[in-house]
Automatic annotation (TrEMBL), chains A, B:
UniProt PTM comment: Transiently phosphorylated on a His residue during the reaction cycle. Phosphorylation strongly increases the affinity for substrates and increases the rate of nicotinate D-ribonucleotide production. Dephosphorylation regenerates the low-affinity form of the enzyme, leading to product release.
Family statement drawn from the similarity comment of this UniProt entry: Belongs to the NAPRTase family.
Pfam families per UniProt: NAPRTase_N
NCBIfam families: NAPRTase_put, PRK09243.1-5, PRK12484.1
Broad EC category: ligase
Domain of life: Bacteria
Name of the protein described by the UniProt record: Nicotinate phosphoribosyltransferase
Annotated EC: 6.3.4.21
Length: 435, 435
């Protein structure tokens, strides 16, 4: 079931789990309900922050982890040490491998309030065990992808570079680089994302490199000697205008790019372009960084900028670092079930979903139904089989899964109505229709 | 240098690194500046979000990773594949092990704008390589700890439970559980945090467990049979009042606790307390969960609540998911250096730091100086030696490091002036004085 990627397998993910999943399994094993056939669904009650659409990301990472979701001797010993000593539970966990079915939206697809982005059919015990990991992965990765997609819109066709690793947990950084690439970020600074997912990596130098040298000129000379004239020189350590002049003197008009990382970027970029042109460096690109988010990127649309480096706001989801997806039991032994808690009611029963499109191929509604929908022209089935009897349906390498998700995202995003790409707060771009 | 913890070592952390750190090393090796002796400092220019103080967390995790920060054959091959083929660079990386010195604030200490929380003295090449990982760890963990500390204040002496794993990346969740425990969260739901850091874990059941059963009573009976009468029953799946009655019928007045996860919690908790008392369950605790943050916790101060479960807002830093720490070259071959970029100027030269206290032991200032400070009564030296010649100064297990950080935090937090604990936005509780 596992794909051999030539990489070290990830650390056993079974303990990335809330303790209550295991106490529930213990109690259900004891009273005979553990084997009841259940359907769990992952969905978000709303989009965060007045967003118009969400991007589902993380499915590929979840499928990567699934074959390793086992309780080995080390895990069992750790559970004992934490006071989980119920012999029936521990025996069951030692034998556990997921044997159920999973369907879901294809990774990279869009989602809206109530979209059933993942459906797990399994015994209660098997299904409930996956809750924490599934939500961790999907909530994090979808938050990053959803924010990143807005940045890509704001950047129009100019390339975006992901460079937020230092602003988030070191493993989250790898997942963030993956999610950003999925929606169209051209490259990432993160070397591990390059290794695991073949995300193209880029990077040249920081202010420290200039400060290391006796003067800016020696730093630029060293960088050009090592990385070639096509490199990007960081010109704002001391004085931007002098930095640009020195950069062109050192590299000549073939200089690949300059980077601006401070100050009022629209003004600075305009002046930099004029100066570069005056110096004959008409092909030298201007890359800007420095606390960019989708709004700052949009504010630079009229400026002569050739690329955006985005860090903090990307890896923190630009105000929405998690997307509030939940994993709910919706059916038990064929009977729809739902809680009735105030403000958190859910709709029972397994769901099916199609996205409806008009004659021009523009999405018009997310149709979520209790029974499979009779397809109309323009309907696209949203749920695809991911796991059958515990086996990944279409095992591919992590890099190939990302590449497919990227292509799928580009396709489905093109079908959104134009108002979906407004950056202002608003309603979801299409309504979710529950039938 | 590595402490044998009996655990699988973490995945090789060397590629949790921005590509430009390596291109800088390559260029510096080529022009002979790689060996210049450098001092890098980690500090935050400001506290996020009008906070009054920050909590430094992550130092222990960084020290855990340092011995594994090596470039093995797999890493070197991955770099080649990404186009980093410079032979001098790859040879140097293959031999790399950090051989410099690191000082820093003790983990769990407080920090303020400009506090030099970590100082790395090494050759340029060795020092610059650690930048990305150091910032990832400290920015993430400090964000969580800083938010968690405010929740602990708001909760007064009532216990807080960390339960946010599902709302953040699965590895970030483990670090978040660790950071929360550091500042005083009693327990976590995260089993891996239990394994790696001996954070006490707790958990009982979710709504799914009630829905799995034919009725609420059977679910409660199963849970009490498996976990004992001291367990906490979740009573809001259907009707709270009926849920409480059933819970006490099933477990008797010895019922350990009930959990409320929806609705208007102050009102519900008050009614629940009255009903429990009426039913004779006067010792049964009331635990509340459901999108709590420090403000919601404060809003429950007058309600009869015995514990708070906190998820989303904790693991996302309650509005500040990262704290903006930077890693800056401040000295090269004994010469202070600093960039002059607009809005991002930094102060050159290695710093020393003490926290000044008045005669009553209340902190009055963070004194950051270019030379070691002549100690006055009430001054506490903030920088402690962490690494000498590449060796961890005081190697302890991950759990022991956390336990020490927790004790240290409690001590230093007690020295803050009372206004530091206001939840409203404001200025840092003490001024940073640069001498």
């Amino acid at each position: 079931m596992a794909v051999d990627t030539g990489l070290t397998p990830p650390p056993a993910p079974a303990l990335f789990t809330d303790r209550y999943e295991l106490t529930m399994v213990a109690a259900a094993l004891a009273d005979g309900t553990a084997d009841r056939q259940c359907v769990f669904e992952v969905f978000a009650r709303r989009l965060p922050h007045g967003r118009r659409y969400g991007v589902l990301a993380g499915t590929g990472r979840l499928l990567e982890a699934l074959p390793y979701f086992r309780f080995g001797d080390g895990e069992i010993a750790a559970l004992r040490e934490q006071g989980l000593t119920d012999a029936r539970l521990l025996d069951w966990l030692a034998d556990f491998r997921f044997s159920g079915d999973v369907d879901g939206y294809a990774e990279g697809d869009l989602y809206f309030p109530g979209s059933p982005v993942l459906t797990v059919r399994a015994s209660f015990a098997e299904g409930v065990l996956l809750e924490t990991l599934a939500l961790s992965v999907l909530n994090h990765d979808s938050a990053i992808a959803s924010a990143a997609a807005r940045m890509i819109s704001a950047a129009c066709d100019r390339p975006c570079i992901e460079m937020g690793s230092r602003r988030t947990h070191e493993e989250a950084a790898v997942a963030a680089a993956r999610a950003a690439h999925l929606v169209g970020f051209a490259t990432s600074s993160n070397l591990e994302a390059g290794r695991r997912y073949a995300v193209p990596t880029t990077g040249t130098s920081a202010h420290a490199f200039t400060l290391l040298h006796d003067d800016e000129r020696s730093a630029f000379e060293a960088q050009v000697a090592a990385l070639g004239k096509g490199t990007t020189l960081l010109v704002d350590t001391y004085d931007v205008e002098q930095g640009i002049r020195t950069a062109v003197e050192v590299a000549g008009p073939e200089l690949g790019g300059i980077r601006l990382d401070s100050g009022d970027l629209p003004t600075l970029a305009t002046r930099a372009r004029e100066l570069l042109d005056e110096l004959g460096a008409t092909g030298t690109r201007i890359v800007v960084t420095s606390d960019l988010d989708e709004y700052a990127i949009a504010g630079l649309a009229a400026a002569p900028v050739d690329g955006y480096g985005v860090g903090t706001s990307l890896v923190t989801g630009s105000g929405a670092p998690t997307v509030g997806m939940v994993y709910k039991l919706v059916e038990r032994d064929g009977v729809p079930v739902a809680k009735r808690s105030e403000g958190k009611r859910s709709v029972g029963g397994r769901k099916y979903a199609v996205r409806r499109h008009d004659a021009d191929g523009v999405a018009t509604a997310e149709v979520v139904t209790a029974d499979p929908v009779a397809a109309r022209p323009g309907d696209r089935d949203l749920l695809v089989p991911l796991v059958r009897d515990g086996e990944i349906c279409d095992p591919v390498s992590p890099a190939e899964a990302l590449s497919r998700a990227k292509a799928h995202h580009q396709r489905v995003r093109g079908a959104l109505p134009p108002e979906a790409f407004a950056l202002s707060r608003g309603e979801p771009a299409i309504d979710t229709v529950t039938v």
